[in-house]
Amino acid sequence: MSLRHAVLGLLAEKPASGYDLMKLFESSLANAWPATQSQVYGELGKLTDAGLIEVASEGPRGRKEYTLTEPGLSELRHWLTEVEPTRVRRSDLLLRVFFLGVLTPLEARTYLATEAARAERQRKALKELDSSIDWGDDPISVHGRLALEYGLRISAAQEEWAHWAAEQLGSP
What we know:
This protein is mainly alpha-helical. Helix content is 66%, strand content 8%. The protein has seven helices and three strands; from the N terminus they run αβααββαααα. Strands 1-3-2 form a three-stranded antiparallel sheet. Helix 1 packs across helix 4 (70-82) and helix 6 (105-132) runs antiparallel to helix 7. The chain is elongated.
């Protein structure tokens, strides 16, 4: 996924300013695709120059509200339906697991316990996020909730795996 498609996707829901988009990133996309303010505003300029979005209105203090154009919607639909998602092939975590034999058994189990704790923290943070959001029946809420559920399930599986892996190394 690119920042380009994240911005197009958010604007497909409704027109928004850069500030509005940053709030949407913080409350919905940050766990899947984080972005900084400078990245979002830079992307808005690129998308406008490419004709994929346009300024729908301008308000006080130079506030601009952007809307998706037909070419922007076509680009988003093309990316959603015809571009194969990038699958991560490298994992720093698993590369380390592959070489845990270099460590003492205690160090290896400690590494895995740390990974289990990290996954647990992530899962708890996602649960807190879930309970703090006033979910609606709009597309961003429905699909955002699906993405959040993915994160909950993945973090639970990672935590379970790390505990299992530590058990495979035997007791101290």
